[in-house]
Design brief:
Two copies of one chain form a homodimer.
Chain A: E1 12-21, H1 28-39, E2 45-53, E3 55-62, H2 65-72, H3 75-88, E4 89-104
Antiparallel strand pairs in A: 1-3, 1-4, 2-3
Helix pairs in contact in A: 1-3
Chain lengths: ~100, ~100
């Protein structure tokens, strides 16, 4: 069941990760699952949303820039980043943004 | 062919629209296509990325908060927003964020 992240009142931060996969799995699915679980355990983690339909978009939400930097430097996450650049993605873009307003239904 | 938006050097703004659809089309697909085309013609539009896999995530990029507000008030877009609340989405969240850093491959 897909879920919209339940984030607190802004301000907080979003990491928008947009990617295009190469063909084949090459260990991607298992690592992606581990990274989702591991991100959720990091200090300052607020939530995550993900969808892939040709283009993949994963948005993770964080309390602070420090929390984002801490997760970026996680040992297994760094290994995932290395494999992402080398094998899994033909292209990607990471955008770090400060959420200033939020509304919905 | 999915594409990652070619955005300029930050700062700029992102609208992260996360949604869960109701069952059935009810005119959604045609309107979604029109809205994509119309957004791209708005002043201050920088790019858009979209994927749906259960959860739908559309991120549009804009030069300024004024450009976002202008698009929000577009007549046909307002009608799409009304239909979205009434028919197409069982839930959605809009987050407006200032992109501060960007990198990729």
């Amino acid at each position: 069941m897909p879920e919209i992240a339940q984030t607190p009142k802004p301000p907080y931060y979003a990491v928008i990760f947009s990617s295009i996969r190469t063909d084949g799995d090459h260990g991607y699915a298992a690592m992606a699952e581990r990274m989702l679980a591991s991100a959720a355990e990091q200090p300052g983690f607020l939530g995550i949303e993900s969808a892939r339909e040709g283009l993949g978009i994963t948005v993770s939400y964080w309390e602070s820039l420090e929390a984002i930097q801490h997760w970026k430097n996680d040992t297994e996450h760094k290994e995932a980043q290395r494999l992402g650049r080398g094998q899994w993605y033909s292209g990607f873009r990471v955008r770090i943004a400060r959420v200033e307003r939020e509304y919905g239904m």
